[in-house]
Design brief:
heterodimer; A: 182 residues; mainly alpha; three-stranded antiparallel beta sheet; 8% strand; rod-shaped; B: 208 residues; elongated
Chain lengths: 182, 208
Amino acid sequence: MSALCPILRTSFDDYLADVLPAPQRRILREHLAACADCRRAALEKDPSFAFARPFAPEPVAEETAARILDAVRTGVALRQTEQRLRGVSSGRIAGSAAAAAAALVLALLIPGGGSSRRARTADARPGATPAAVQAAAVQPPPAARPVEPAVSSSEATIYDLNPGAGREEPRVVWIVDRGLDI
Amino acid sequence: MELVYSETRERQSSTELSDRELAVRARSGEMVSFETLVVRKTPAVVSLARRIVGNGEDARDVAQMVFLRVWNEIHRYDEKYSLNTWLYRIATNLAIDFLRSSRSRERAHGATLHLVREREERTADDATRVAEDAELARLFESVSGRLSEKQKAAFVLKEMEDLETSEIAAILGCGESTVRNHLFNARKILRREIGRLYPEFVRGVVKA
């Protein structure tokens, strides 16, 4: 028992109430780690004093640390790929919008462009002539045609397998990401 | 070959940087700095997560989520503030979320039962071993099952990580008086649980 012991023991209540100033708190914790008598007295006062000591981080096995790092790397790579793909997709949307605008301008500028389109659309309606319907029926299905890349960049290529799909038919897009290390 | 050499040299130089410098470099997209930070902080994050979630396997899962969250949020890191506080905030919140999941609760309960049985088989001489950090950490795991997530996190950060109450308030996103309230209630519950589950622990230490 040192001269410091009785003084520090008077601060137990303040420690438990969390009103002990930081420097005194540190001194008390260090003292409790070193002085068995005061530690006993503290535990008699409150068993939760058992945890009033600085705990060093538990060592993590190298293998475990390596596994965590690998998992984090994989997760980061996936996030980066997702972000890249989002970038490519938004680029494709911007490209499609530009193409649609250009088509609209051409349709308005080319004489008869709009009317011939209207005529072709009319063929597909009920009431169209049998010959026109037959001609439409012999068109090969979209999947039978070779698919051209819709968007291609140094990072990814997007193949749009059914570009005309609307709400009734699911849209099928195949994205080939060169950044994926498979 | 040159690339490998260059990356190794880069990694060696990054290990000499402070946490804050590494975080700033990681923020600008430097992967080597981020990985150095992960390696450096893994033991602290796993330990903190383990004390909150109650078992090592879940703690490793939480640690992975913590570092992924850090990577996603690194652009928000402000170097004016301590990296540890920011990291502990992410780790504590994710560990609390994890603890709230029923799966984690079941595992913690299983671990507690195992520890209680293990303790019952020990002799009084083992009381001296209880003084060891690892043993105390396990003791905490077994008696802290009845603490709420916030009470547990506040107690771990205060007693085991030795953080200031103001830091804990910042980490938990509440006021200092709320932290004190959590600590008060945590002590009350721990006092009761230690007395109930390990009466020989307190008696053994007092008699020693």
